[in-house]
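User: Please work through this fold.
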Amino acid sequence: MNSPSTPPAPREGRPIPYEPRVPSDTMPPGRAAISVSWAALPFLTLGWATPFTFAAAALWRRTPHIVTAALAYAGVFALQIVVLPDIGHDPRSRNVFGACVLVQALVACAHAFIIRRRVFDPSGSEGMGSNEAAIEWVRRQRLLRQKARALAQRDPGLARELRIGRPDLHRRYDDGGLVDVNHAPASSLETLPGITRELAARIERIRSEVGGFTSAEELSAVAALPPALTTDLAEFGLFLS
């Protein structure tokens, strides 16, 4: 049984689930934006801010990896300062300076992006950004179901053409996870909350006998389903004639 409370895996014939576009999987957007800005500083300043960027992270987190990285970039920066006065007339110094800039700007920037979550969200839970994304996904699915159900009430023919409530068919319209109880096969009925394979087979059999259902309440009564399922069936079920 699949629960509609979590995003289903994309399958052929089903709309791709909505995924909020945030800068990080584990951080709230504000903190993620700050972490991206921090990681981009070495590149944006051509390496001049690199030792300070990593020194700040080392002072904040005090982990061996970040402290070692901060000392290494500080050493490269010191070498860069030492050879700076001679780059105008000494090719060797010019080459050393260019190598230092390359390390400070590009290597350090890539390094900063790799460890930015370790610096700004080491526990992976500050702000619970992933939970916020999940909440946003559920809210959007609810809205999609409401709009699809309203469309089906206004124009049942259009709803059938759009294949609303038919996850077993190829379609482009995202209905938020509705299932047309009167037309979907048992395999799709099983995706409804609490509907087991046995209950789906029972619904399909009784549906062929009575010709369909008009509501979740009628479905529960006629098919003798557990009363606790009625609310969820009303939320995720569609009853097209």
Notes: Residues 1-24 have pLDDT under 50 and may be disordered. The chain has ten helices and two strands. The two ends are 26 Å apart (CA to CA). The first helix runs from residue 29 to 44.
